[in-house]
Task: inverse folding
C-alpha cells in the first residue's frame, strides 16, 4: 500500500512539474527611449528572482518567463519600469528619463550610460561647470590642469591651430600617441574639438590607457576623450535661453635668449644672404643686409650690431571675442537644442 501511495505521489509531482514548464514561454521585444532610439545594455530581470538578460546593440531582448511574472527594466538615467507578463509574447518598452539621476550618469562607449560605481576602468569625468570655469574659448585648452596625465600639444598656433591630446605620456616612438576623440558617438579629432564651443558641452569623460581599446578597438589604445554635447530634454516644459561672452587677449610671453657677440655669417666672415651666427664680432660698421633688390647689385645696408628683441616687432596683441547664445526646451513629443 505504501509503495502504491509513493508511486501516485511521484506521478502527481511529475504532472505538476510538467504543467509548470508548460506555462513558461519566451518573451521578446525592443527597448527604446522617448526618441524611439533602441537602447543597448538595458537590464531585464524577473522580479523576485535572479533570472535576467540584457538588450543587445539593437535594443532587442529575449527572456523565458510565465504569465503573471513581472519584468523589471532598468537603465542608468532612465526610470525603472515594471511590466506584468500576460498572454502576449512580444513586449516593447519605452523608457522615460529620470531627471533626478541625470547628474550621476557617466557616458561610456557608443552612448551607453553608467553610474560611477559601475565603471571599473580608470577614468575622469568633467561636467559643464568645470569646463567653462576659466572661460577659455578653446575646448581642448580648457582641459589643461583638470585631468591628471593629460598633455596638450599644439603643433602650430594661429587662427586654426593643430592640436593633439596624449594621456599618460609617450607610448610609441614611430606610431601615434594621440588619444581618440569621440563627439556624440562620432569619431572625431582634437582639432575639431578645439573648434567646439565649450558652452555647448555637457560633459567630457576621459578613459585612460589601454582600457579604451576594449571599447573602441586599437584606435582607443592611447585613451579616449568622450564628449557629450548639451541637448534639449523632453518634458522640460519651458524654453531656456543663455547668453555668454568671452574676450581673450594674447601677447608674447618671452622670446628665445640669443647671444649678442657674433653676427651672421660663417667661419668669421660676414654672409649677407644667410642667418648663421658664426660671423665676426659686432663692431657697428655699415654692412650689406639681406638679399639685393630690385637688381643683384642693389644691396640694403645697415649697422653691424646686435638689436635686442628685434623679432618682437613682428607680433601684435591678439584679441578674440566669442559670443554664445543657446536655446533648449522640449515637450512630451520633441526636444529642441
Result:
Amino acid at each position: 500500500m505504501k509503495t502504491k501511495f509513493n508511486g501516485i505521489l511521484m506521478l502527481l509531482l511529475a504532472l505538476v512539474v510538467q504543467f509548470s514548464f508548460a506555462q513558461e514561454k519566451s518573451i521578446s521585444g525592443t527597448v527604446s527611449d522617448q526618441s524611439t532610439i533602441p537602447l543597448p545594455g538595458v537590464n531585464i530581470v524577473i522580479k523576485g528572482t535572479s533570472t535576467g538578460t540584457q538588450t543587445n546593440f539593437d535594443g532587442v531582448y529575449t527572456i523565458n518567463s510565465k504569465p503573471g511574472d513581472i519584468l523589471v527594466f532598468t537603465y542608468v538615467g532612465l526610470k525603472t519600469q515594471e511590466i506584468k507578463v500576460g498572454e502576449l509574447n512580444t513586449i516593447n518598452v519605452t523608457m522615460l528619463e529620470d531627471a533626478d539621476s541625470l547628474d550621476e550618469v557617466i557616458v561610456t562607449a557608443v552612448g551607453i550610460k553608467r553610474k560611477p560605481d559601475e565603471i571599473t576602468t580608470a577614468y575622469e569625468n568633467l561636467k559643464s561647470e568645470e569646463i567653462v570655469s576659466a572661460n577659455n574659448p578653446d575646448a581642448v585648452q580648457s582641459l589643461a590642469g583638470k585631468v591628471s596625465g593629460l598633455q596638450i600639444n599644439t603643433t602650430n598656433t594661429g587662427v586654426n591651430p593643430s592640436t593633439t591630446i596624449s594621456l599618460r605620456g609617450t607610448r610609441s616612438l614611430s606610431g601615434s600617441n594621440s588619444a581618440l576623440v569621440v563627439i556624440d558617438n562620432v569619431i572625431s579629432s582634437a582639432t575639431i574639438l578645439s573648434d567646439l564651443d565649450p558652452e555647448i558641452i555637457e560633459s567630457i569623460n576621459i578613459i585612460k590607457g589601454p582600457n579604451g581599446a576594449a571599447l573602441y578597438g586599437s584606435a582607443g589604445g592611447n585613451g579616449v576623450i568622450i564628449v557629450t554635447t548639451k541637448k534639449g530634454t523632453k518634458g522640460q516644459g519651458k524654453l531656456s535661453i543663455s547668453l555668454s561672452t568671452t574676450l581673450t587677449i594674447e601677447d608674447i610671453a618671452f622670446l628665445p635668449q640669443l647671444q649678442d657677440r657674433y653676427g651672421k655669417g660663417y667661419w668669421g666672415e660676414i654672409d649677407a644672404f644667410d642667418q648663421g651666427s658664426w660671423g665676426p664680432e659686432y663692431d657697428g660698421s655699415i654692412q650689406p643686409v639681406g638679399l639685393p633688390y630690385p637688381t643683384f647689385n642693389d644691396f640694403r645696408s645697415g649697422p653691424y650690431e646686435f638689436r635686442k628683441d628685434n623679432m618682437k616687432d613682428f607680433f601684435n596683441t591678439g584679441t578674440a571675442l566669442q559670443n554664445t547664445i543657446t536655446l533648449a526646451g522640449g515637450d512630451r513629443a520633441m526636444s529642441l537644442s
The helical segments are 2-23, 128-131, 190-195, 213-216. The chain has a mean pLDDT of 77. Residues 105-229 form a domain with the Ferric Hydroxamate Uptake Protein; Chain A, domain 1 fold (CATH 2.170.130.10).
